[in-house]
Amino acid sequence: MKASAFRRSFAFLFDILIVMFVLSLVFRLAGDRVIKGQIDNFQEIYDQYQSDLSDYYDSRDSIINDYTNEIITIEARDTQLETLSDEFNTLHEGDISTIFKYYYSVTLFFIFGFGVINYGYNLLLHGQTFGRKLMKVELTGNINWWSLLLREFFWKSIFWGITLGLGIIVDLLLISLTKSKKTIRDRITNTYVIYSGTVYPF
Length: 202
Hints:
By secondary structure, this protein is mainly alpha-helical. It has helices at about 5-35, 40-70, 75-90, 95-125, 130-135, 145-160, 165-175, 185-190; strands at about 135-140, 190-195. The protein has one domain (about 5-195). The mean pLDDT is about 90.
């Protein structure tokens, strides 16, 4: 019996928790330090930026309060807010791009890291992950390192990432609405997911 979208989805969500736990651990132990090490003086720049940002908001609130309390006019408020914003942006013009570079690198780390760890996790267990066992579903068919690489790395990480999650919706629709309950990755790799629990005739 082919596994339902419900069982496949919850099996995947459970496996995501395991993969993300391992990935977060790797990030804390090494990834964060490596990424920051590629950016000169990142921690000092980031700490100063956060400190100045806090001061910026305090000053902004003070200007708005002065206007609310009718100490300054609306024209004075707008002029002071614009000046404050311009000064902050000028002061941290280079810092913003540095901080963006860090977060961009972190995003790539998690996208590719998820793919690599998820692939290794599936390869180690021959596709019979803890999530699938919990939901009593089984990956069958042509299971080898190549088919798992296509399914778990290129499809679930690269394709889903490139399509900004649209690939997940397509998969759910194919599982829910087609008689075969096979996704595109199932067809490409000649694999399928079946329900391995007891099927009662009533």
